[in-house]
């Protein structure tokens, strides 16, 4: 999808892919109001495309190097990111049509991101064999995440049901868990790439009226809803694979409580309520 948008932009300005045209494209994305993280994800994919084009002698080394050297958009301030409420999460999971094979796959994809807090790269490389039973429940065992940290991720019952519906319908018994589905509705053998994971999330989020929403926002949603449900901070750290509780605290951020406001108590007791 990101490459399609880039192609349309290059056609519009009638220029080939180069450093100057990529800088112009980046400026256009900023003007559209996209978040820095969304823009930087697109830039990362384009850099990979340029590097691959150089390896296949489609781009010369100098042009490819100048493209890969285009910097990311700087993030201003501390971004808390986007996340869904519990009702929005339910609405998102209702988007895929589970009467179709691709709908079963997309539901499993969303359920894993929402229910297990996986990074999209972790999800893209997930194998059928990675889901095992430990202490009487399904888990993703020995998941290697960011910084080569290894963790075990528990799989909630509803998420496991969604996975089972997809794997049974696609007859997957080993290899990549999430795979492409052809237009005729047949599963492929190749793993679904992390860009495809991002595309599924973005498309489904748009269906419920939430633009510019990515896979990492579902990871954040998982963490936020775990915390709102009374989840222990240290256990959320283990779930996400963070290096420290401080990282998890920064990740969750602070949130203003409107229903039970911090100023209600002292104003009522000290200013308006009569002493007992």
UniProtKB/TrEMBL annotation:
Domain Tyr recombinase stretches: 79-264
InterPro entries attached to this UniProt entry: DNA_brk_join_enz, Integrase-like_cat_sf, Integrase_catalytic, Tyrosine_recombinase_XerCD
One record GO biological process: DNA integration
Family under the similarity heading: Belongs to the 'phage' integrase family.
Protein name from the UniProt record: Phage integrase family protein
SUPFAM superfamilies per the UniProt record, alphabetical: DNA breaking-rejoining enzymes
The entry's keywords: DNA recombination, DNA-binding
Any one GO MF annotation of this record: DNA binding
């Amino acid at each position: 999808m990101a490459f399609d948008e880039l192609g349309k932009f290059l056609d519009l300005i009638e220029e080939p892919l180069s450093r100057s045209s990529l800088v112009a494209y980046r400026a256009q994305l900023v003007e559209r109001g996209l978040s820095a993280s969304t823009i930087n994800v697109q830039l990362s994919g384009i850099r990979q495309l340029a590097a691959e084009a150089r390896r296949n002698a489609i781009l010369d080394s100098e042009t490819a190097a100048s493209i890969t050297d285009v910097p990311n958009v700087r993030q201003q301030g501390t971004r808390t990111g986007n996340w869904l409420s519990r009702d929005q999460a339910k609405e998102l999971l209702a988007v895929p049509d589970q009467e179709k094979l691709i709908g079963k796959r997309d539901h499993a994809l969303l359920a894993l991101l929402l229910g297990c807090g996986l990074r999209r790269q972790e999800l893209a490389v997930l194998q059928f064999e990675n889901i095992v039973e430990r202490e009487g429940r399904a888990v993703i065992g020995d998941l290697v995440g960011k910084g080569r940290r290894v963790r075990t991720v528990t799989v909630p019952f509803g998420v496991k049901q969604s996975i089972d519906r997809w794997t049974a319908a696609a007859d997957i018994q080993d290899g990549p868990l999430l795979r492409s589905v052809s237009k005729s509705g047949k599963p492929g053998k190749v793993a679904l790439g992390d860009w495809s994971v991002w595309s599924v999330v973005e498309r489904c989020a748009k269906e419920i009226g939430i633009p510019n929403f990515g896979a990492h926002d579902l990871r954040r949603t998982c963490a936020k809803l775990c915390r709102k449900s009374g989840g222990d901070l240290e256990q959320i750290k283990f779930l996400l694979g963070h290096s420290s509780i401080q990282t998890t605290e920064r990740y969750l951020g602070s949130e203003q409580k409107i229903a039970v406001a911090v100023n209600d108590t002292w104003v009522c007791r000290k200013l308006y309520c009569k002493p007992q």
